[in-house]
Specification:
Two copies of one chain form a homodimer.
Chain A lengths: L4 E6 L3 H12 L1 H8 L3 E7 L15 E3 L2 H4 L7 E4 L6 H12 L3 E4 L2 H17 L4 E2 L10 H8 L5 E7 L2 H13 L3 H11 L7 H4 L2 H15 L9 E2 L7 H10 L1 E12 L2 E12 L11 E8 L3 E8 L3 H16 L26 E2 L1 E8 L4 H11 L4 E7 L6 E8 L2 E2 H12 L9 E5 L3
Parallel strand pairs in A: 1-2, 1-4, 2-3, 4-5, 5-6, 8-10, 10-18
Antiparallel strand pairs in A: 7-9, 7-11, 9-10, 11-12, 13-17, 14-16, 14-18, 15-16
Helix pairs in contact in A: 1-12, 4-5, 5-10, 7-8, 13-14
Chain lengths: 430, 430
């Protein structure tokens, strides 16, 4: 049997403690499957006194995580500190510089600095593994990098943020409004006190940028992702979506187009009949459409102690088994700079919801604006009649370009009988 | 760049031709992702003259596949001949004996002889990869062996046969009977002329036996699988299932019990709300329930040229990248013999459909039989009234043991007013 794999874990929040627990609980299984024991030798966190539900006295303690990178008896540094810069980045850089493999769950770090870190690791013959950074427990990084690596991908998309999916599912289930469900999710611990990264789509965009690099061989380019969240989705939209045969999900989607790589995160109406429409609550799912394999769907828990620890430990198992792979499937030296398709050039159907005064000629005015932008209406519904009062008008368009849609929405907003800024949700035909 | 990986492909049916096509079409991508070219140097099949939709003149031709194992310029033999014995087995054994890696899509071979072949390959430091043998294009072998390898599994189950899933979906969609839909599927080429292996569950059982070994660390033991198919499922059962909140799927399921490992393949009623209930047509899906990761679902195409070639090429990519892993995750030398839980000890709810004469006391007689076996009735429905004529009675039981259920069914079959052998379908609470 080969030597034990000696591990240092930096960051002892829920996930860090979960990793230490998993490695301890499954010691026999891991030794057998890896042909060598996995051994945590050191840990690092700021507060030594906190009870983390796991015995930590057997491990050497570092107050300064970066100092851990210097330890001669550590083979792999597990970075679970989080944050795109600061100590997390300093630790990963130091670890690679000292010849240590790295496992990280840090999507912000990988989305911002993944290409450079991958280059450094590969130049040094080291592994930089990050399965836990995308879709938690779902082994999607491995699937794209290895299991589906013989394919070119027409499209990669997924539900990448469990908090948003929980909120949207709960809004649909109860008919309640976004702010109300968010407040409850915060009280239950399903959403952060500062939920911005989740509900504004940033977290999903970090993950999408990583998936794009894996699938298409470009340097990770977070700034090229169009990012929008779910704050503007209302109970009424969810209800109309159901009536039209859709459900609303926050999707991240990447695909090559004639204008470059499209990467976007936003609320979408997806057809009820598509598998991803049935992924509910805090579950995540990723769909990869390969030219040979066809549509593959991967679903599981995207966050939480157990699922994230499962992914971190899978990365450690790969290192213990001496699997060394290009970080983003394509060797880092060959990753090309990404040309981003401008969001203005996006083409798709759109859902529009308007509050208009119920008076003669309103629909004609709206229809004229759409005609001027060459936007064709697929269906229209107006609920109720209330002459002189505001009523809701819902429009679904055929495929049109985002730029034309934005111009039309801006003109419609300026029409006198239109009572509030128009609501728009993109429809994704999956 | 390392030397090219030299490949011999034996068996040039749809999948073999697809593998050659994929390697040719994606040559640049594969060279980049593997850091070396993948190069087919030889092929083998019986009939040289057949048009396979791909140019084969550039490759050395073997009439005898086993002779290919002797070629000095081949690094990997791809076995796509099929069959659990005969030339497929001879070729794989010869290849391993001559120090060549093996990639196979042969589930029958791996289910029958996997443990011994794995031992031979691992003793020789060779890879024996078989991603295509289970669930086609879905990288489930890799997921269990690597991506989820830090978990113990409470249960592994899936829709493992696309032909059966297609037939059941089509029966549900059209209300037609099994024989009718099977005949159509055969005419369309979705089912084999001799469909026995598919519709009687043997193909799914081969795949399940492989998954069990991967997930639980036992030697593959096909003979320990309880196998039943879908011939007995009727349009009426599908209709009653819908009414009761279920869909009927052919499932393969493995789990550890106090009596040993339960491995079974049979038609199941699964709750409509569970993800696997929505896997339709020829799609396959596998669900792995890990103690840390929770429920993960993998869905995709389980057969066909492109998906199967995708899986075969993924195995070749692993070999080109010099990934060497224990064949069944646990090293072959450590695989334990499996203790099979007897099917008689299975516990679950049951659906029973009876044709009985509509006369006083019939239900009381049936209920008495169930009471005698301590089987408790969850619900009962009788459609229509036709005194003296046969009517359908449907029963759903609470959890009970298979042995008790079989005794009860045998007694019920003997009751005078019971017009035909009772139909029974197991319900699976997922």
């Amino acid at each position: 049997m080969r030597n034990e794999l000696k591990i240092g874990v930096a960051g002892l929040g829920t996930v860090g403690a979960g990793v230490v627990k998993l490695i301890t609980a499954q010691a026999d299984l891991l030794r057998q499957r890896c042909g060598r024991p996995l051994h945590v030798v050191a840990v690092s966190a700021r507060d030594r006194s906190r009870d983390r539900g796991v015995a930590l006295d057997g491990y050497r303690w570092y107050d300064d995580a970066v100092a851990m990178a210097d330890a001669d008896d550590i083979d792999v540094v597990v970075e679970l500190i989080g944050g795109e810069d600061g100590p997390a980045k300093a630790l990963v850089e130091a670890a690679i510089a000292r010849g240590k493999h790295v496992v990280t769950a840090n999507k912000a770090l990988m989305a911002r600095h993944g290409a450079g870190l991958a280059r450094a690791a590969e130049d040094a013959g080291l592994s930089l593994n990050y399965e836990a950074a995308v879709a938690g427990g779902i082994p999607i990084v491995k699937a794209l990098r290895e299991g589906l690596a013989g394919n070119q991908f027409a499209r990669i998309y997924g539900i990448l943020n469990g908090t948003c999916n929980y909120i949207l599912t709960e809004m649909e289930r109860t008919g309640r409004e976004f702010e109300d469900v968010l407040a409850e999710a915060q009280a239950l611990g399903y959403a952060e006190a500062d939920p911005t990264f989740d509900i504004d789509g940033v977290d999903a965009a970090h993950k999408l940028a990583i998936l794009t690099s894996l699938a298409y061989g470009y340097s990770v380019d977070f700034d090229a992702v169009f990012v929008d969240g779910i704050r503007h989705v209302s109970a009424a939209d969810i209800e109309y979506a159901a009536e039209l045969g859709y459900r609303i999900k926050l999707l991240g989607l990447a695909r090559p187009t004639d204008d470059g790589i499209e990467q976007r995160v936003h609320a979408c109406m997806v057809p009820t009949a598509t598998p991803i429409a049935h992924v509910d609550d805090a579950f995540n799912a990723v769909v990869a459409e390969g030219d040979h394999v066809g549509r593959t769907v991967f679903e599981g828990r995207g966050a939480g102690e157990g699922p994230t620890a499962s992914a971190v430990v899978a990365d450690l198992i790969d290192i213990a088994r001496e699997i060394r792979l290009p970080t983003f499937s394509t060797p880092a030296a060959d990753l090309a700079p990404l040309t981003a398709a401008p969001m203005d050039r996006h083409i798709g159907p759109y859902y529009i919801r308007l509050s208009v005064l119920d008076q003669p000629g309103v629909i004609a005015d709206i229809a004229a604006v759409l005609r001027d932008e060459e936007i064709s209406i697929e269906s229209m519904l107006q609920r109720g009649r209330a002459p002189g009062e505001p009523v809701t008008v819902v429009l679904v368009t055929h495929e049109t370009q985002e730029a034309a849609m934005n111009r039309a929405l801006s003109r419609i907003a300026g029409l006198a009988p239109v009572q509030a800024p128009p609501k728009m949700i993109r429809i994704e035909l999956l």
